Amino acid sequence: MVFKELPPEVSKVASRLPDVVLEMERTAPYAAASLAGSRGLRISVNDREQVVTEVPPSQGLVLSAWNGSFFEESATSEVTAQQAFQLARSLTSRMQLAPTSTRLDSGPTLRQHFSTDCVRDPASLSTKEKLELCIDVLRRARKLDTRIVNVQVDYTETLESKVFANRNRLLSQGVQRMRFGVVIMVSDGQRMQYDWLGKDGTGGLELIEISDDELLKLCDNAIALLSAGRIPPGMYEVICSPDVSGVIAHEAFGHGVELDMFLKDRARSRQYLGKAIASPLVDILDDPSYPGGHGTYFFDDEGQLAAPTYIIRQGVFERGLSDHYSAHSLCMPHTANGRRESFERKIYVRMSNTFFGRGQTPVQSMLDSVEHGIYLQHTSSGMEDPKGWGMQVTSHYGEEIVNGKLTGKRFAPIGITGYVPDILHSVSMVGDDFLLSGGTCGKGHKEWVPVSSGGPHLRLKARLG
Amino acid sequence: MLQRIIEAVRREEGVHDWLARHIRKTSTQYYTIGSRAESRRSVQSEKVLVTVMNDHAASAGGQEQMRGQAQATILPADLADETSLQHKLNQAVFMAHLADNSPYGLPAPAEYPTVELADLTIQSRAKQVAEGLVQQLLAALEHEKDVRLSSAEAFVEETQIELQNSRGCHGEQTQTSLLLDWVLLAASSNDEMESHLAVERRRVSDVDVAGMVRRHAQYARDALLATAPRTGVFPVVVSDEALEELLMAEGHSPLIYRSSAQLKYQRMTPWEVGATIFTTSPSGDQFTLYSHALLPFGMRSAAFDAEGLATHRLPIVEKGLLSRFWAEQRYAEYLQVPATGTFGNMEIAAGTHPFSALLDDDATLYHIVAFSAMSPDPFTGDFVGEIRLGYELTAGRARPIRGGSISGNLFDVLARAQLSQETTFLGDYVGPRAMRFADVTVAGA
């Protein structure tokens, strides 16, 4: 098998991983070995500075041994075959097998390599050309208005390479992630404000094109925010853009259906399995195989092949997301959601691309239907609360809707809070559009992994403040 | 490893200045679900971060000299043969050559202060510390009615850093850290609620497990009874971890951003030295803020910053006026201000009000002890945060609340803040235990 995204020295170790697994399984009922690495390029330009540098690379080996009750792991940045065997012997020699030992399923036999398809391979442009591309966007944005005090343009390409081996599997993948962002900072001499635009996904340079119209809209939004006020607190009819819909799917609902939360008794959602939890218009999915999503991968960090999971179908909570440990412990389906931040961290149940399913209502009809409400357009943060099921999502700004028309009056920032089932039941329209936005997601305040979230526009009721 | 890399950097053509940091880390991790082990991990990592600077003519033409810099992270596998190391350094020089920035230098050698960063207990018994912290949690919970442990994670780490740069700086420091992250569950006959806390410290003795369990067990029990706050404008007291979250914002504090020389150079902060930091007339306690990198066992303490600048305890804001911008070497040179190094721990001068007096009011006020997440906008200072747990206080009577949010602007509310005279140390923050803000918007029922 050829591990084409790996450096040659690391590739040699990858081919020995099945033997390392066999070594550990002389003692452990189940074992796995993985190599995880990433490297990339970052370019950042603004009015006054230029940065062209690497994305700090990471490369490490993780050995996982199941002692019949839980995983014990050793990890190191020293990736040599000798170190791998030494670590395997050391790990299993100090391991105490559980008295009532259970085996884990190694899955069907499979040896395969996967890699991201790029329409325009990032390697087709030189680093200098990529810098020129960023400077071009900076210049185009900079001349749009005299109130602009700075423009920041960021380009990031990251190649993530992983190898996984257990008794039956030897899998490798190369995932190319791209991110491109523009921030426009404006001032009227009294206040400063800003807005940003991001393009991202797995793929190539085709993902990161930004038009003059998009830059102009971004500049107009930033300037409009200079006169934004604070929203009077209260319940509102709300139209959520796909960006805001996605954060509701991810933060408000997604984290609460990660099955490690079930094991810890932290998920209120558990009492709703198989029951209606949302309006019948609502579908929510997590799909690590979604083509081009920023959270896309071919297999998770436990060698489980990526596939879509319907979490909510027509308003009914159908299934949660799992890793090997939680699926085994709860006797629930094993989904491809076992992910680690890097070799230095443990695997947790994590989302990938999480989104509301597409509906049938044209977006203009949704806006037309609102007598008085708010169009929430851009999320700046969100936080989960799986036990209390309170929702916190912060929208960078929102625009007033009166009699179906956007008035141009903006409020910033806007906090969206409420009880998650109430909000999901309040969904009264689902748009016929669809968009994913990429980012990174933490578990609590750490363990960052690339994800995306999104879906269509939604009409719902929420408390804003 | 470091010397071999430095020799290679010195041989590399096009390197006009350089900086190398050798970082070695060991991590012991212990995870439980309830009292049952979920996972045990041990991790060792090593890397050398090399930054190279290249001087060149401006790409736009002309005689102007420019400087670019780029980083190469050298991993152990890169040392298997000379080609890989050489390739990474070549790439870094090539990238540095592309970036056009006004010239700047690196810090010169300096005498570094002695800063307490390492806990001998962690260094000698990491595994016992990790598992011992969880045992302490479980023991403390035996005294708490209707409260149990949902899950716990203990990370116990030691990091050794050696730094050298081309101007002759050479520093070494060893630091330890621990993270104890836990969730408590309180149960009533028909419901359960949780209280979550993540504590980061450098020293085991700075973690008062029993005290924290007492407080958070009560929070979890109170969450069972909590209802939404009212909607309106009220005085709001924020205390302890919730206050640290509001002020520090996980390192993205508006107070740190707006006082940064880098942001001043990039025209992204409106602050001026000698001018007020507030957007309204100050009417509260005097506000004085230090960057304190020498704080014993502070999470942002260090003897030298990432470039080799010696660290200090420095006033940044005095009585509401900006004293100085904190400045890394490069931005200090650009703005022609003294180089201070990276912002350290946040220290705020104590106030004059007893904590109990901040909560004393005949009219309704809210006391917030936990946010779901509080991340004020680092550039504007605007904030909005969901209330995870708080108390509505009316004439001394307390009612637990949760849900809804508070919103405002950090510089507005600080202008009118009353600060407690009691202080607290919370890892990267030392200062008043509580602040009372006048007229904050509460979005509730």
Q: Kindly provide the radius of gyration of chain B, computed on alpha-carbon positions and rounded to a whole number of angstroms.
A: 25 Å
**Which structural class should the secondary elements of chain A be placed in?**
alpha+beta
Counting DSSP E segments of at least 2 residues, the number of strands of chain B comes to: 19
The percent range for helix content of chain B is 10-25%
Task: Specify the overall morphology of chain B.
Answer: globular
CATH class wording of the largest domain in chain B: Alpha Beta
Strand content of chain B: 35-45%
- Regarding quaternary structure, how should these chains be classified? heterodimer
Q: How many alpha or pi helices of chain A?
A: 10
Order of helices and strands of chain B: HEEEHHHEEEHEHHHEEEHEHEEEEHEEEE
Helical percent range of chain A?
10-25%
CATH topology of the largest domain in chain B, by name, is PmbA/TldD fold
Mean residue pLDDT of chain A = 94
Strand content of chain A: 35-45%
Poorly predicted regions of chain B are none
Write up what this structure looks like:
The complex is a heterodimer of chains A (465) and B (445). Chain A has 465 residues and is α+β, with helices and mostly antiparallel strands. Chain A has helices at 8-14, 17-24, 81-93, 127-142, 212-225, 242-253, 259-263, 324-330, 363-368, 420-425, and strands at residues 30-45, 50-66, 71-76, 110-115, 148-165, 169-187, 192-202, 234-240, 284-286, 309-313, 316-317, 338-339, 348-349, 353-356, 372-383, 390-402, 405-411, 414-419, 429-430, 435-443, 446-455, 458-464. In chain A, a hairpin with a 3-residue loop joins strand 5 and strand 6. By secondary structure, chain B is an alpha+beta fold. Chain B folds into two domains: 2-222, PmbA/TldD superfamily (PmbA/TldD fold), CATH 3.30.2290; 226-443, no CATH class. Chain B contains eleven helices and 19 strands. In chain B, strand 2 (36-57) and strand 3 form a beta hairpin. In chain B, helix 4 packs across helix 5 (209-225). The interface between A and B is large, with 75 and 80 residues.
